[in-house]
Design goal:
The structure holds 2 protein chains of 2 kinds. Chain A is of the alpha+beta class. In chain A, about 35% of the residues lie in helices and about 10% in strands. By secondary structure, chain B is an alpha+beta fold. In chain B, strand 1 and strand 2 form a beta hairpin. The chains are: A alpha+beta, B alpha+beta.
Chain lengths: ~190, ~625
């Protein structure tokens, strides 16, 4: 257990980075409107400007629900198997076949345990106007950021927002660090 | 003491259970306040989730297999018995510890249903449970889940309706009632599943159902669930100016359902892989079946899709290197499902038979013919005269070889696929057209998976407050076999007569009649009777003696057993003349009683569910 720990955390960080990409390019999942306790992957903090109480220092989040979600993505979508495998030698067709499986399983998992909606309902590429006092944690301004609100610009990415998180209850004492148990057939 | 506030409907299905409830205090007339219980269950070691359905699987883990702490439920539970989603997924890899289809075993006439026989044929050290115990376990899980959510309305005190297949024989109904009673559920009623589906349709229509049907209508309910096919005919009748529903016939118990269809597709794909030299192990076939189910659902719901890729994942961690990619085509789905399970057949078609002697002790008597449409044709053909005695019905008369339904209600997950509903409608249409009948209407039914539980809860409500009721009584007439006394002739079995004890359509609580014939029971010795049921002999009355019948007419059921205990009145070896009486209890089970000529004593006659094997 102890010698597997560093590699576990290496794997864990890599998987979270991919998970973040999967959920939506680094858009914070845990924001206003989330009903249950949202998994807040380690090392990801809301943009500073959004902090309402500037005095409270940034805090590390509990890894529990992140581990739980990873475990579900592995169980249903084989996500960790996929990310941990060296795919350089395989053809695109082979990778594609596995990706379908991962896509189907992970997508189903997201649908089951989270409700995910775009932050902005407009199609990408249209012009949008942000009034004064818009929520900077929901919309990130880029490019020629000058002047005062209202800001007008092009919607590049719609953003994603988890409106609901409903992860399974966990039995007390259950070791969530085991993302998937080894299997031995007798 | 908690209050009786809810009418609870429990669908104790072959592959899934569901529970729905009606709040009796808040409902009024057609404004029914109804909910569906999300059932907490283990979905993985240490993970409890709420799901609308509880898979009807029981897993009996090895003591070392899982940590007891990872098997905790929100209520006190036995870590040696896992029920629901986790049971199903563990059992996929370790089938020797999985109990499945307990309900089908519950009406298997050749096994002892109170004996620990499941899982069947396993190594000696694996614990086994009886079919009755497994069913009780699912009910117990539902009860504990309910009581956790309703601390002030214990399930035992509510109006509980448990559904059974219309084709369940009296012994299987009795066993189902026993399972509920074992949990202290006293206010219990059994309801046939196709009736529950129709009740749900009535409830959904919010009173408009009266405009959607008329006197003379014959509604065919086709219920194809995960493991069984259940058929019923319900006629729309009239009494004192008000519309009434009367269930006039039910089909045989057919072990054929959606799971067979997914498995069939998996075997088609497996065969295709075999041709290119790829062999799959059991685990992979399981995964393939899962993949095929997804692919099938897409092909059936997206008409433009001709090919859906199916990937069989590797079992080890090498996903990209070890997975097998294949595909399921529309042509394969059509050939396998439509032509295999719903073939175009004439109304005169009959399923390929299975000889009763061919039943094996270890397995379930699965339907030999996978064609749902042939089973349907046989049912309608056998019931051609079902409405003969009803008032206001068009005499089926000359030139009609089967009962013409005028409306069809589908139920069960299989019919979520519109293509399959259309297919069945179209075939019925052709049968009707061939005999010059009018076409049948489709009754719209939402919620094909949950309709039975919902309809059962609604039934509990209408029983309490009044409203439309489906009448019908027993779906069969029942007989005991009497061997006539005649000189023994070698090689010739003494001729058997059948004495009618309960007429067709005997209703619950109706005044029971006693057949006049007397039987001599030997005190202190178990006496057995052969027992028969008929789903077509509607004219026989209590006491009718029939001497000849075709196998189509009378079906042999499990034996009856009576034992008169020795006591103050009788001594061992005495022969006491008794008469037999049948009644339908409030619960909906058949009760047979032996009544001696003298005295007020009564003895209950039991169904011999110990199996009809050699002893």
């Amino acid at each position: 257990m102890s010698d597997s720990k560093p590699s576990f955390f290496d794997r864990f960080t890599g998987a979270v980075a991919s998970l973040r990409r999967l959920i939506g390019r680094g858009t914070p999942a845990a924001e206003a409107g989330v009903e249950a306790e949202a998994p807040r992957p380690k090392g990801k903090r809301p943009p500073r400007r959004a902090a309402a109480q500037p005095t409270s220092p940034p805090a590390a989040t509990e890894p529990q629900s992140a581990l739980q979600l990873l475990s579900l993505l592995q169980q249903n979508g084989r996500l960790i198997d996929f990310l941990q495998e060296d795919i350089t030698a395989y053809s695109d067709q082979e990778v594609g076949a596995a990706a379908r499986l991962v896509h189907q399983g992970c997508r189903q998992t997201l649908e089951e345990y989270l409700s995910i909606r775009p932050v902005r309902e407009e199609p990408e590429g249209v012009q949008v106007t942000l009034g004064p006092g818009f929520d900077a944690s929901m919309v990130r301004l880029t490019g020629h950021v000058v002047g005062e609100a209202p800001f007008t610009g092009i919607l590049i990415h719609r953003g994603w927002r988890a409106t609901q998180v409903r992860l399974p209850q966990v039995a007390a004492g259950h070791d969530l660090k085991i993302l998937t148990a080894a299997e031995v057939e007798l | 003491m908690s209050a009786r506030r809810f009418a609870v409907g429990i669908d104790l299905g072959t592959t899934h259970c569901a529970l729905s409830y009606v709040d009796l205090e808040q409902s009024e007339g057609e404004e029914v306040v109804q909910g569906l219980m999300d059932i907490p269950q283990l979905t993985g070691p240490g993970a409890v989730e709420e799901r609308p359905m509880l898979p009807s699987f029981l897993y009996l883990p090895h003591p070392e297999e899982l940590k007891p702490g990872d098997l905790r439920l929100p209520w006190e539970s036995d870590p040696g018995r896992i029920v629901g989603e986790l049971a199903r997924s563990l059992g996929a890899n370790t089938p020797i510890r999985l109990v499945s289809s307990a309900k089908s075993w519950l009406c298997h006439p050749d096994v002892d249903r109170r004996a620990p026989i499941l899982p069947a044929g396993v190594p000696e050290e694996v614990p086994q449970v009886s079919p009755l115990e497994a069913s009780t376990q699912y009910l117990r899980h539902l009860r504990d889940a309910w009581n956790g959510l309703h601390p002030f309305a214990d399930l035992a005190d509510q109006e509980v309706t448990v559904t059974v297949p219309a084709s369940f024989d009296p012994a299987a109904r009795e066993l189902t009632a026993d399972a509920a009673r074992a949990l202290g559920i006293e206010n219990l009623v059994l309801l046939e599943e196709p009736q529950a589906a129709l009740y749900n349709w009535v409830n959904d229509s919010r009173g408009t159902w009266r405009k959607q049907v008329r006197v003379g209508d014959i509604i065919l309910v086709v219920d194809v669930g995960g493991g069984t096919t259940d058929l019923s005919l319900i006629a729309v009748t009239e009494r004192e100016g008000a519309l009434e529903l009367t269930r006039v016939a039910v089909g045989e118990h057919i072990l054929l359902g959606g799971d067979n269809m997914d498995l069939a597709l998996a075997h088609v794909v497996k065969g295709k892989l075999g041709q290119i030299g790829v062999e799959l192990d059991r685990w992979q076939i399981q995964a393939l079946t899962h993949g095929c189910r997804h692919a099938k659902e897409r092909i059936l719901s997206e008409p433009d899709l001709d090919v859906v890729p199916v990937v069989v994942p590797s079992r080890g961690a090498k996903l990209v290197g070890g997975s097998v990619r294949t595909e399921l085509t529309r042509d394969e789905v059509t050939r396998t499902l439509i032509d295999g399970f719903f073939p175009q057949v004439p109304a005169s078609a009959r399923p390929a038979g299975r000889a009763r002697t061919a039943l094996t002790k270890l397995g379930l008597p699965f339907a030999q013919d996978p064609a749902v449409t042939r089973h349907l044709a046989a049912f309608l053909g056998r019931q051609a005269m079902a409405t003969e005695t009803l008032e206001g019905f068009v005499p089926q008369g000359e030139g009609r070889t089967f009962l013409h339904p005028t409306a069809v209600l589908f139920n069960g997950g299989v019919f979520k696929a519109e293509v399959l509903r259309d297919r069945v409608m179209q075939i019925i249409e052709q049968w009707l057209a061939a005999e010059g009948g009018d076409s049948a209407r489709l009754l719209g039914a939402p919620d094909l998976d949950l309709a039975v539980a919902r309809g059962a809860a609604y039934y509990g409500y209408v029983r309490r407050v009044g409203g439309v009721r489906i009448r019908g009584g027993t779906a069969q007439s029942y007989y005991v076999g009497i061997e006539s006394s005649m000189p023994a002739v070698p090689g010739l079995e003494p001729p058997l007569q059948a004495l009618c004890l309960a007429p067709f359509g005997m209703e619950e609580g109706s005044e029971p009649e006693i057949a006049p014939q007397e039987f001599g029971l030997v005190v202190g010795e178990p006496v057995r009777f052969r027992f028969f049921g008929s789903s077509v002999r509607r004219e026989d009355r209590v006491g009718t003696l029939i001497e000849e019948w075709t196998p189509e007419e009378l079906e042999e059921l499990e034996e009856l057993q009576a034992e008169l205990p020795t006591g103050a009145h009788y001594q061992a070896g005495d022969i006491v003349p008794v008469r037999l009486q049948a009644a339908v209890t409030e619960v909906g089970t058949l009760e047979l009683t032996a009544i001696p000529r003298k005295g007020t004593k009564r003895w209950k006659i039991e169904f011999n569910v110990r199996g009809s094997g050699d002893e």
